[in-house]
Write a sequence for this structure.
């Protein structure tokens, strides 16, 4: 029996015709049904949490540069990997202008946390200290680059913003909205 309406992984899109989708299970999954009883998966919540952890571990490995890493049941993040991941999250936050102690900060409404970025860019060039992070984010699909005479301007893609939303547990809007 499906209880998608009560599932914590059910997200809704905004707009004139809002749609709901599962953040974990795709419609191509064999356990996903779309019939006269409604659409949804047959996974229990514990399995969905496990699938989310596995997806997160794959994202971490991709961001940290372990492209050839074969995902096993569990990974042990070293202290170095944990430090790198914190650096990447810090750079992503800086890119959209989100700093807890800064002038721009997240706001809370009805128990949920939101942030509306005023920018989405980061200027750097090859050879700079944190350049490796941007290369890894680009490989993972979280960032894109625009080259100019003043260096390279990087920005986070919607996929990168979605990943940061998940890590910070807040809603991050596009800077154009």
């Amino acid at each position: 029996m499906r209880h998608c309406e009560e599932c914590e992984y059910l997200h809704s899109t905004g707009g004139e015709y809002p749609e709901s989708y599962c953040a974990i299970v795709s419609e191509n999954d064999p356990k996903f049904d779309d019939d006269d009883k409604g659409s949804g998966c047959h996974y229990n919540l514990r399995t969905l949490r496990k699938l989310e952890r596995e997806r997160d571990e794959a994202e971490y490995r991709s961001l940290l540069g372990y492209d050839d890493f074969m995902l096993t049941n569990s990974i042990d993040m070293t202290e170095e990997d944990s430090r790198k991941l914190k650096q990447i999250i810090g750079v992503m936050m800086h890119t959209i202008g989100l700093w807890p102690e800064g002038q721009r900060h997240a706001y809370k409404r009805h128990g949920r946390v939101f942030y509306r970025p005023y920018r989405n860019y980061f200027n750097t060039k090859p050879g700079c200290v944190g350049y490796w992070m941007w290369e890894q984010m680009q490989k993972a699909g979280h960032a894109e680059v625009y080259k100019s005479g003043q260096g390279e301007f990087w920005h986070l893609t919607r996929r990168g913003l979605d990943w940061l939303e998940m890590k910070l547990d807040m809603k991050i809007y596009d800077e154009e909205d």
Summary: The first strand starts at residue 10 and ends at 12. The domain at 77-172 is CATH 1.10.10 (Arc Repressor Mutant, subunit A).
